[in-house]
Design the sequence.
């Protein structure tokens, strides 16, 4: 087998894994390809959601669990423990696979390297590291979750060029154009949860649902291409998407029971409140009757961001999209809890100093205190809007 063919088949496995983006939590995305000794593809598979076959098992199932002398390409180290599904290592060995090419080891300290060692003890040839960086990038949110116990937090905001989320009256519709806003729905379709503050619910009454156009490829995971990664184009397009868990930080239980997010959408609404908010029995009963799940964090009137992230992690939330507003953004910044920023800038100016800023509250006194960012990508949209994806230096 040539090195070029190895690379080609591993890339195919990565492409398969990405089809399940946003569907596998709390598990990682995993793709697998099985070939014969000449490099001809015999079967392929992907992990579609938690509790179903992992990528390698999905591929082996298509071959009746028999693949003597074959090579298996898999994007993540096969697991060697009993969970919702049997160990993939046992199935690989029993199938007679001769060689396994692994993109990256499982970063879970309790697992790391166990699957590889088990295969090698059984006489299987194992090679690790082919397209490993691409595999780690694909599952970066899950890697962060499994190694820190906290969700990967994406702070997303639409801003004027002079840095405002809204006018002084709170009006923000619309800062960016249709193409940029459509890309946000692609992002919503890929994350596990979306979080806003109670102020955003009271001011904007958002539904926080996912609205996508186009047709899917059987997994709902076509990767629309084109300017700004438009919705529904290229890669087989998309289904209508799915609504992520919607989370509201509401220390006083102040959101109305008739809020849109409680009347629209297919996903649950989780209201995180303080002990003081929970003491308002009538409001709590009204929100519960409207369908909200209410969880009390802490004993006082303050909700810590660390407690928020622990609570969401306990619910299997691997990736969290924070959509505002300024006070919530500032709280996540102060807690050093932002993993990634996606800032959409429109070619507009408000021109005054009294608009709503990205972060509410005092900043550093000197530039030396500014948070350094690494810009990972810039995307231009039709209409002149631009998105910058950046990670803070602590990520």
Sequence:
């Amino acid at each position: 087998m040539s090195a070029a063919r190895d690379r080609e088949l591993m890339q195919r496995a990565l492409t398969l894994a990405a089809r399940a983006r946003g569907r596998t939590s709390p598990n990682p995305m995993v793709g697998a390809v099985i070939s014969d000794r000449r490099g001809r593809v015999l079967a392929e598979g992907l992990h579609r959601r938690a509790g179903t076959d992992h990528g390698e098992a999905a591929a082996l199932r298509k071959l009746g669990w028999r693949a003597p002398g074959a090579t298996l390409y898999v994007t993540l180290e096969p697991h060697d423990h009993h969970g919702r599904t049997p160990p993939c290592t046992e199935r690989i060995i029993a199938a007679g696979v001769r060689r396994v090419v692994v993109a990256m080891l499982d970063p879970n300290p309790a697992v790391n390297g166990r699957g590889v060692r088990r295969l090698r003890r059984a006489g299987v040839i194992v090679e690790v590291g082919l397209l490993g960086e691409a595999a780690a990038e694909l599952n970066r949110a899950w890697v962060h979750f499994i190694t820190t116990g906290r969700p990967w937090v994406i702070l997303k905001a639409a801003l004027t060029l002079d840095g405002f989320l809204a006018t002084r009256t709170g009006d923000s519709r619309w800062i960016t154009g249709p193409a940029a806003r459509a890309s946000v729905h692609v992002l919503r379709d890929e994350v596990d949860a979306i979080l806003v503050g109670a102020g955003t619910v009271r001011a904007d009454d958002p539904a926080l649902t996912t609205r996508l156009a186009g047709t899917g490829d059987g997994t709902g995971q076509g990767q629309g291409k084109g300017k700004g990664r438009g919705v529904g184009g290229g890669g087989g397009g998309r289904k209508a998407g799915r609504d992520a868990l919607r989370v509201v930080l509401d220390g006083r239980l102040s959101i109305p029971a008739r809020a849109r997010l409680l009347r629209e959408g297919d996903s649950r609404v989780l209201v995180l409140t303080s002990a003081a908010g929970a003491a308002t029995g009538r409001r709590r009963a009204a929100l519960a009757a409207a369908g909200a799940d209410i969880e009390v964090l802490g004993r006082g009137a303050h909700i810590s961001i660390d407690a928020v992230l622990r609570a969401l992690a306990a619910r299997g939330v691997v990736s969290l999209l924070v959509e505002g507003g300024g006070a919530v953004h500032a709280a996540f910044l102060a807690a050093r809890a932002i993993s990634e920023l996606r800032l959409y800038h429109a070619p507009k100016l408000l021109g005054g100093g009294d608009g709503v800023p990205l972060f509410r509250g005092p900043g550093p006194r000197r530039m030396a205190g500014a948070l350094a960012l690494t810009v990972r990508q810039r995307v231009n949209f039709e209409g002149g809007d631009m998105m910058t994806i950046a990670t803070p230096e602590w990520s």
User: Anything to note?
Assistant: The mean pLDDT is 90. The first helix runs from residue 3 to 18.
